[in-house]
Amino acid sequence: MNQLHRNDWNQWWRSAAIYQVYPRSFSDSNGDGIGDLGGVLEKIDYLEQLNIDAVWFSPFYPSPQHDTGYDVADYLDINPEYGNLQTFDKVLAELHARGIKVIIDVVPNHSSWEHPLFKQALAAQPGDSARDMYMFRKSSDGAPNNWGSMFGGSAWSKVEPLSGKASDRDWWYLHIFDASQPDFNWENPKVHEFFRSYLRFWLDRGVDGFRVDVAHGLVKDPALPDDLVGPDRLNYEGPNSENGRALDVGPFFNQPGVHDIYREWRQVLDEYGRDRMLVAEAWVNTPEQEAMYVREDEMSQAFNFSVVNCPWEPGALRKVIRRTQEASASVGAPATWVLSNHDTVRHSTRLGYPTGANTDNGIGVTDPQPDREIGLTRALSATAFLAGLPGSIYLYNGEELGLPEATTLPDDARQDPTWKRSGYRVRGRDGCRVPLPWSNNPSSNFGFSPARASSPWLPQPADWGELSAQVQESNPYSPLNFYRKMLATRRSLGLGMGKSTWLDSDPEVLSLLVTASCGRKVIVATNLAVGYRPLPQLALSKGTKVLLQTPTIISEDAAPSVEDSGIGPGQTLWIEI
Ligand code: GLC
Ligand code: CA
């Protein structure tokens, strides 16, 4: 049991392609316009044919949905809108039967204000031990400190309106996110105990791992000092800011004590075997800080968000990719590659803007709109580049359809709490959460629901059906068929378990030689120039076989097709030598 979890290089998660299912938006089996686990059961064949190795489910627990399930009212059950524990067991069994692992989302920084522990805390008197599960503080002179919520406005709210007790007049509770998401007090051993038993509950059911929400946020500086930013984190220019908002830096992020929690969790997981994994959502500023979360007695891996934040620019991309590889290698962890998730603008849209455009606040109908064709071409290219490299890759549901962000959602349909909390300035993340199109039939919400269903919980754009899985199925050049082929090739060669060396001599072309675990050698190259470029020298000298290629960007600047062996603008190639 005390063996370290690192010593088996064949652990599945080291090289897995992991597909994120956002339950509310994936597939609706009963026609209420809300995705559910029955909907997932209907798509098991689809998931298998995609050639993914694991599914990560965003939260499916009972929740009042003030933050689409990241406000958990019961950690040991399933949201009745989505099904029940038996439905979950079925999903788990079906996926396991196809060789697909299952990761679930644990939300340990905060619960919902509807969680019984918070309700008990409110019912108790100030100073009672029930209150010690959360972060209550007394202050008669405004909020206890100047901390701002990640969703805008103060991170403190008054207790009295919730408890109805006059004795609470000067009491406040902390919520780093929405007021409906009170932060747990991780200095209390009972909180530790609560989450250890949570982990065991789901491990006993058979899950293969956990994605840890806000892994960098659980522990706060105990002195609760004022921070540099103050209460308007979404509108801040100064040290540790980017694009007019504060980065995840301050007395409530990345405190040394968080690492003790993951050491404790690792021990719980080790009771079940070293194949059970933990992946951190830790928004920290450097790959080196991120690597701390995956030291050998902590988590298995951490999302690497540096590529998400990186512009389509060869120098910048080369730098973040190299740094990621070096930092993860230094602690013996695999690299993780991420381009999209439920918190970011979909990468096919992000990459359709000129370099330097700021899409962090979400996109609305009055904002400049992206170039869809360039965005999609670059998105496929970026995905194919990262999928060719050693490490694991996280994919967000819908990206295999090349789905763009919904950039023209009506503002009154928005549900993300940032929209309201920012005083209707920051549009937020709804645009990447619109229910998926499965067919071209509008009466079934484009196949998201059965026929004659209620409207989907977020409206779908009118052209959604043309992007649907059913339409793409019969087109050999569709993004869907491209993803299937890419992931099949990646898996059959063992590229994720390979070893890589940088080759590039052309500053505008990123290229690596990957020696796959099967021993075959593959050049993975992306051309970021506006015109065609020659293939890397090594490919020219050895004679080549193209295993995979993405489309090129056809623009006036691109030289008309040069030699066949060239690499097109915006194109990624996998070439066997
Ligand atoms: C994480 C989730 C995000 C959520 C927040 C609060 O960043 O990915 O969706 O809003 O945590 O739980
Ligand atoms: Ca439903």
Give your account of this protein's structure.
The protein has 577 residues and is of the alpha/beta class. It has 3 domains: 3-109 and 188-220 and 255-479, Glycosidases (TIM Barrel); 116-174, Oligo-1,6-glucosidase, Domain 2 (Oligo-1,6-glucosidase, domain 2), CATH 3.90.400.10; 498-576, Immunoglobulin-like. Helix content is 25%, strand content 13%. It has 16 helices and 18 strands. The chain has helices at residues 23-26, 37-42, 44-49, 85-97, 116-123, 160-163, 189-205, 258-270, 287-292, 314-330, 347-350, 372-387, 417-421, 469-473, 479-493, 537-542, and strands spanning 17-21, 54-57, 101-106, 136-138, 156-158, 171-174, 209-212, 241-242, 245-246, 277-280, 301-302, 336-338, 392-396, 499-502, 509-515, 521-527, 545-549, 572-576. An 8-stranded parallel sheet has the order 11-10-7-3-2-1-13-12. It has a 5-stranded antiparallel sheet with strand order 14-15-16-18-17. Helix 9 (287-292) links the parallel strand 10 (277-280) and strand 11 (301-302). Helix 7 (189-205) runs parallel beside helix 8. It starts with 16 loop residues before the first strand and ends with a strand. 54% of the residues are buried. Bound molecules: alpha-D-glucopyranose (GLC) and calcium ion. Calcium ion binds at residues 28-30, 32, 34, 36.
